[in-house]
TrEMBL record:
<dbReference type="InterPro" id="IPR005055">
    <property type="entry name" value="A10/PebIII"/>
</dbReference>
<dbReference type="Pfam" id="PF03392">
    <property type="entry name" value="OS-D"/>
</dbReference>
<dbReference type="InterPro" id="IPR036682">
    <property type="entry name" value="OS_D_A10/PebIII_sf"/>
</dbReference>
<keyword id="KW-0732">Signal</keyword>
<protein>
    <recommendedName>
        <fullName>Odorant-binding protein A10</fullName>
    </recommendedName>
</protein>
<feature type="signal peptide">
    <location>
        <begin position="1"/>
        <end position="20"/>
    </location>
</feature>
Length: 120
């Protein structure tokens, strides 16, 4: 009987781990075009200011991505959909090539946000 309980417990833990790995962020805003945003200076600055908490998050997708971007960045998009991975890669590539100082500030803020979240 003890073996059966132990086996059930191990299977349950394994299933929980598999299910946890399959958890993905909501794909509601996967249709956002990062290339178009990056090409539009006003829109690009609006998103950046939202993510950096130096300006308001104006649109619903900005608010959504702002809630998860630090975690997504820090976990290398572990819970991202394929489209979200593409978006983060596109944004990362653009900023590292075109505005590396802003990218470095974003990375620093992301790390700080995750430290704060870990302390909670």
């Amino acid at each position: 009987m003890a073996r059966l309980i132990c086996t059930i417990a191990i299977i349950s833990i394994a299933l929980m781990c598999v299910l946890a790995e399959e958890e993905k962020y909501n794909d509601k805003y996967d249709n956002v075009d990062p290339v178009a945003i990056l090409a539009n200076e006003k829109l690009r600055e609006q998103y950046y200011n939202c993510f950096m908490a130096i300006g308001p998050c104006v649109t619903a997708d900005q608010k959504f991505f702002n809630e998860l971007i630090s975690e997504a960045f820090q976990t290398q998009c572990k819970k991202c959909t394929e489209r979200q991975k593409y978006m983060l890669d596109t944004i990362s590539d653009w900023y590292t090539k075109n505005q590396p100082e802003k990218w470095n500030r974003f990375v620093a803020k992301s790390i700080e946000d995750m430290k704060k979240k870990a302390k909670q």
